[in-house]
Amino acid sequence: MYQNDTIAAIATALGESAIGIVRLSGSESVEIANRIFKGTNLIEVPSHTIHYGHIINPKIEQVIDEVMVSVMRAPRSYTTEDSVEINCHGGVVAIQRVLEMVLANGARIAQPGEFTQRAFLNGRIDLSQAEAVMDLIQSRTSKAMDASISQLNGSLRRKIQQLRHEMLQTLAQVEVTIDYPEYDDVEELSLQEMNQTALSVKQQIEQILQQSQQGRIFREGIQTAIIGRPNVGKSSLMNRLTGYDKAIVTDIEGTTRDTIEEYVNIRGVPLHLIDTAGIRETEEVVEQIGVEKSRAVMEQADFIILMLNASEALNEMDRELLDLTKDYPRVILLNKQDLTPQVTVEDILDYAASDEIITTSLLTEAGIDQLEERIEEYFFQGDLKSRDVNYLLNTRHTELLRQASAALDEVVASTEMGIPVDLIQIDYTHAWDLLGEIIGENVQDELLNKLFSQFCLGK
Ligand code: GDP
Ligand code: ZN
């Protein structure tokens, strides 16, 4: 039977724009939004009105984002249910945090296409319309991205399978205890085993959550710092990659005032580009600040684009930046190839490997294809993995893992209180189900198969 619980999701494609919408649908939408909204009392506002305010973490009164919230009451909404749309302004990270706050306050993460499904089930749209919307949603993800997601998910799937296997051993053991309650020591053993397994699996779940940097990369993009001394062409590159003039390009050294950040999609790879502020190099002191600034930006970078000016001899700052970036995944652009070269690839080989260097010109666009190729390579060919990045988690995965972890906490607490094993089993099985949901495995069949093969219950 169809349930009218309240679902939530990010309704805009990540990385494509600075604003994003978190959408809620279901009978508690307005109440949930109101719990985390500071501004007007949403419960009292008329339908189809929009309200300015802030999303806060109500527990600690911390502001998360400045937002506009629109309230649409049933039946005049896309799903025909009470709906709320939170328009966030703080960028990708803020949107994610707003969604997390919504989930922490009573909504459930929507399955892909679930809003449309509801619209369909509630008679708001017909099946062909629903399918058209689904196609649209799916065409947003590029093929390359799909491939990488399934590839990276392989490791998550294997890990979850391993955890569930571990849990199943214990579950099978407990099943026997319940069937033969006359053996007390068997029950004691089961309790101990459940306690141990729950603790171990919980720890591993926490580890997965920690190691899901990949999830961060999908949410926030690969943090990519463009560094180089003033006037090498950083802002020009930024503009070329974003496709529009946001960074100010000038002939005057050091005119890029602040760090400029932008999300771009290079061949299906989400990048969060950071153009480091230009610093005048006339005074040595100021130049040092430039290096320090680059260092600070680099600290948070996954990937570095170091730019050099081929039309001028290498100077001290160039050499310092070459040295500073040598242990990072990086690409070195020898830019302004169209001018008379003063520096060649050979000159840089003392500081870098040849496959790190690309000669470019932002005037003629030479080398830009190669740069894009290198970014693609970095993303798809495992460089990322070498930096402790093991799992790709989307919000649904994260949510299920958190729930499983919480259920296991219950198990641990219950085993320590000596609660009867068949009661503890409920939480335990729940955790196991939740993990199964991540990889979409049929819970019931698997359990039965396992039990039959191991214990021949039907005999
Ligand atoms: P930034 O200080 O590193 O951000 O450098 P900008 O992007 O502001 O560029 C400084 C100047 O160099 C501008 O006049 C650009 O038009 C010019 N420039 C950038 N790339 C190239 C290039 O490949 N060839 C030539 N000839 N000029 C370039
Ligand atoms: Zn600049």
TrEMBL record:
<dbReference type="GO" id="GO:0046872">
    <property type="term" value="F:metal ion binding"/>
</dbReference>
<dbReference type="GO" id="GO:0003924">
    <property type="term" value="F:GTPase activity"/>
</dbReference>
<feature type="binding site">
    <location>
        <position position="256"/>
    </location>
    <ligand>
        <name>Mg(2+)</name>
    </ligand>
</feature>
<feature type="binding site">
    <location>
        <position position="235"/>
    </location>
    <ligand>
        <name>Mg(2+)</name>
    </ligand>
</feature>
<feature type="domain" description="TrmE-type G">
    <location>
        <begin position="221"/>
        <end position="380"/>
    </location>
</feature>
<keyword id="KW-0479">Metal-binding</keyword>
<dbReference type="InterPro" id="IPR027417">
    <property type="entry name" value="P-loop_NTPase"/>
</dbReference>
<keyword id="KW-0547">Nucleotide-binding</keyword>
<feature type="binding site">
    <location>
        <position position="250"/>
    </location>
    <ligand>
        <name>K(+)</name>
    </ligand>
</feature>
<feature type="binding site">
    <location>
        <begin position="231"/>
        <end position="236"/>
    </location>
    <ligand>
        <name>GTP</name>
    </ligand>
</feature>
<comment type="function">
    <text>Exhibits a very high intrinsic GTPase hydrolysis rate. Involved in the addition of a carboxymethylaminomethyl (cmnm) group at the wobble position (U34) of certain tRNAs, forming tRNA-cmnm(5)s(2)U34.</text>
</comment>
<dbReference type="GO" id="GO:0030488">
    <property type="term" value="P:tRNA methylation"/>
</dbReference>
<feature type="binding site">
    <location>
        <position position="124"/>
    </location>
    <ligand>
        <name>(6S)-5-formyl-5,6,7,8-tetrahydrofolate</name>
    </ligand>
</feature>
<comment type="subunit">
    <text>Homodimer. Heterotetramer of two MnmE and two MnmG subunits.</text>
</comment>
<dbReference type="Pfam" id="PF01926">
    <property type="entry name" value="MMR_HSR1"/>
</dbReference>
<dbReference type="InterPro" id="IPR004520">
    <property type="entry name" value="GTPase_MnmE"/>
</dbReference>
<keyword id="KW-0630">Potassium</keyword>
<feature type="binding site">
    <location>
        <position position="85"/>
    </location>
    <ligand>
        <name>(6S)-5-formyl-5,6,7,8-tetrahydrofolate</name>
    </ligand>
</feature>
<keyword id="KW-0378">Hydrolase</keyword>
<feature type="binding site">
    <location>
        <begin position="275"/>
        <end position="278"/>
    </location>
    <ligand>
        <name>GTP</name>
    </ligand>
</feature>
<feature type="binding site">
    <location>
        <position position="231"/>
    </location>
    <ligand>
        <name>K(+)</name>
    </ligand>
</feature>
<dbReference type="InterPro" id="IPR025867">
    <property type="entry name" value="MnmE_helical"/>
</dbReference>
<dbReference type="GO" id="GO:0005525">
    <property type="term" value="F:GTP binding"/>
</dbReference>
<comment type="similarity">
    <text>Belongs to the TRAFAC class TrmE-Era-EngA-EngB-Septin-like GTPase superfamily. TrmE GTPase family.</text>
</comment>
<feature type="binding site">
    <location>
        <begin position="250"/>
        <end position="256"/>
    </location>
    <ligand>
        <name>GTP</name>
    </ligand>
</feature>
<dbReference type="Pfam" id="PF10396">
    <property type="entry name" value="TrmE_N"/>
</dbReference>
<feature type="binding site">
    <location>
        <position position="252"/>
    </location>
    <ligand>
        <name>K(+)</name>
    </ligand>
</feature>
<dbReference type="InterPro" id="IPR018948">
    <property type="entry name" value="GTP-bd_TrmE_N"/>
</dbReference>
<feature type="binding site">
    <location>
        <position position="459"/>
    </location>
    <ligand>
        <name>(6S)-5-formyl-5,6,7,8-tetrahydrofolate</name>
    </ligand>
</feature>
<feature type="binding site">
    <location>
        <position position="255"/>
    </location>
    <ligand>
        <name>K(+)</name>
    </ligand>
</feature>
<keyword id="KW-0963">Cytoplasm</keyword>
<dbReference type="InterPro" id="IPR031168">
    <property type="entry name" value="G_TrmE"/>
</dbReference>
<dbReference type="Pfam" id="PF12631">
    <property type="entry name" value="MnmE_helical"/>
</dbReference>
<keyword id="KW-0342">GTP-binding</keyword>
<dbReference type="InterPro" id="IPR027368">
    <property type="entry name" value="MnmE_dom2"/>
</dbReference>
<dbReference type="InterPro" id="IPR005225">
    <property type="entry name" value="Small_GTP-bd"/>
</dbReference>
<keyword id="KW-0460">Magnesium</keyword>
<dbReference type="GO" id="GO:0042802">
    <property type="term" value="F:identical protein binding"/>
</dbReference>
<feature type="binding site">
    <location>
        <position position="23"/>
    </location>
    <ligand>
        <name>(6S)-5-formyl-5,6,7,8-tetrahydrofolate</name>
    </ligand>
</feature>
<dbReference type="InterPro" id="IPR027266">
    <property type="entry name" value="TrmE/GcvT-like"/>
</dbReference>
<keyword id="KW-0819">tRNA processing</keyword>
<dbReference type="GO" id="GO:0005829">
    <property type="term" value="C:cytosol"/>
</dbReference>
